[in-house]
Amino acid sequence: MNLEESLAIDLEDQLSNLTADLVALESNRSFLDRLFSIESSKWVNLEPLCSELNQIKAEIAELRKYFTGTIQVTWLDYPDAVCGEGFCTIIFFVEELHWHSLALYNQQLFFKKQIQYN
Description:
Strands 1-2-3-4 form a 4-stranded antiparallel β-sheet. It is built from 5 helices and 4 strands, in the order H-H-E-H-H-E-E-E-H. The protein has 118 residues and is α+β, with helices and mostly antiparallel strands. The longest helix is centred in the first third of the chain and has 22 residues, at 3-24. It has one domain. It has helices at 3-24, 29-36, 46-49, 54-63, 107-117, and strands spanning 44-45, 72-77, 87-94, 99-106. Helix 1 (3-24) runs antiparallel to helix 4. Residues 1-28 form a coiled coil.
């Protein structure tokens, strides 16, 4: 494996870690609030959805040293999930890198928690 391939794998790992944190960490809840306010299946730029998340913004800025493309994100209802009702998929995509990540997410639980916070 040459240096360029090694950097590409490392970049993909970093993107995967970033997107996993966006979906999994409670501190990044505002990202999900904004994402789910957008119509299902509509692709949007990730960065505006993270405008309140300083750690995520810093990570994206670091990743920007290695690619210039847009990190796109969308979500889709997933009514036939083996896990039960209320799930969706969240898809992240960087066309320039041919990189993607998909997360299965319990949107119903997210909305229940949202009611508790309000």
